[in-house]
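Catalogue entry: protein
Contents: sequence, fold tokens
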Amino acid sequence: MDPKRLNPFHSLLFRLIVSTFLATIFVLGVFYFLMIGKQREMVEKNYVDTAIFLAKSFESTITKREELENVGFLYGLILKTLYTQNNIDLININKENNGRMIVYLSSESNLIGEEASLDNFYSLKDNRIRTARIIKNERPFLKVVVPISLAGQTSFTYEIFLSLAQMENYFNTIRNYFIIALFSLVGTLLFILLSLSKILIFNPLNELKKAMELVGRGDFKVRLKRKRKDEMEEIFAGFNKMVELLDENYQRLKEAKKELEEKVKERTRELEEAKMSLEIRVAAKTRDLRELTQNLEKIVQERTKELEQSKKELEAKVKELEKFQKLVEGRELKMMEMKKTIQELEEKLKQK
């Protein structure tokens, strides 16, 4: 069975490559957002410059009081500006009236007479240009308020609304293209690196792993082909050198094992010879012991017969002694009776 191959997706190299690409994506993303932010600032600055230019142009056009009071003339100037600038959505000419800012003229006639935003009032008071990003009808706009002087009167502001939708669409398109290009580039580079890694690293590592498993099973004749000019050639050379040393040590161990087996056989033969000699001696001793045992048994039997004969004789003598003792005891009794009789006779004689 072939050894299990290395999985590139579980390797440290793959993790390093992915980490590097993620860091690259992060850095490129930060660079992209910084670049887009800078471009937004530049575009908005151009819009503000355009608004200032239009305000100053409108201011320089109105030089007489009659022109200021000619609403048709003023409205024509506003429409001309709207037609020449596609990104302008609304233009208001605001005028101060009793401490309030009202719409004096507008590209949308329904706003005329309405109160203008506070940005116009503050811009008029401090004579500064004000800008603000606003959302109108769900669309982004850049509002620019420029204080102007019309026909010698300094109580007017030029309020213009510049649409940022086109700019947002442009930047969104750039963002989408950037994301597509970034991921396409990253995917292509990742595929190329993984393919090269498989050819240059993982395939040699799988070959090395297979060779190591063969060595682990006792095959010390395996060698890796050294047809490379990179670090893997040094690894293969080191592996081959290691296997050669293992093979030499294994051969030495085999020879030592063979010598040891011969010594064991020789020693076993000597032990078998000693065993046979010992068995012969034991057999001889056993035979001698058997003969001795038989002789002893005969002697014991003879002694037993003699003892039995002596026993019988002693028993006969004991019986004779018992008879003699009985006779002696009978005589003693008779003697005692005789002594008693003699004493009685003596006493009778003394009495007479």
